[in-house]
Amino acid sequence: MSPRSRRVAICDLDGVIYLGSDPIPGSADAIGRLRSAGWTVFFCTNNATRTPAQVTAKLARVTGIETPHGDILTSAVAVARLIRPGERVMVIGNEALVGAIVEQGGVVVSDNPEAVVCGLDISAGYATLRDASLAVEKGARFLASNLDASFPTPDGKWPGAGALAGVITATTGVIPQSAGKPHPPMRALIRESMQERGIPADSPVHVIGDRPDTDIALAATEQGWSSTLVLTGVTTDPHSAVPPPDRVASDLASAVDGLLGEKA
Ligand SMILES: [Mg+2]
Hints:
single chain; alpha/beta; 6-stranded parallel sheet; 15 strands; binds magnesium ion; Rossmann fold; 21% strand; 5-stranded parallel sheet
């Protein structure tokens, strides 16, 4: 860690800051304390169905946390960065994913694509999955915003982007390149966002999340990155977490207590 290094927190949203549309108590205060102690906080989500601006608005509405759009890192933005300018792209996903792809210069098409990008589309039907499978079978690049198999709702688990991509994989035998946590495109987006703010690349990064396979795994393979698993989301038994986190905390407020206590 060089003298210019700054401490960076990568904070997951659902299960850490809020649960659906309910704030997790103490999370806004915890983010405020981290920022007051000089940390830079980025919010990082595999949810590809909201634009960074929409996430900013939700954060403010649900928790009162104010943050610029540029500090919101989504898997939609991460997968869009894999698209080449002018590339013809078939998209399974909503307007947030389509918008991110168009912003990167992709041309959204419904036939003869050079790439298929699969995210979450709760209205996707058989014809959509058939056309995407046919395109991948014919050689289109196959990309996914994330491979989360499901997401929690008040009814129980609903099929996630990974489940939809799984239909195309089962049909074609092709596994998509995934952009979301814990995969390299999201780590690249985090590093670029740090660089844009003048944060030295060797600055320590601490990931706080509720999912071992995405949030904790994001930190597990990077030199100088560490993690805290919080128990306000999908994980209730930290002992079975794979990969194991560096720290476990009951919630974000205690995670931040631990981080700031270490610094003092
Ligand atoms: Mg989460």
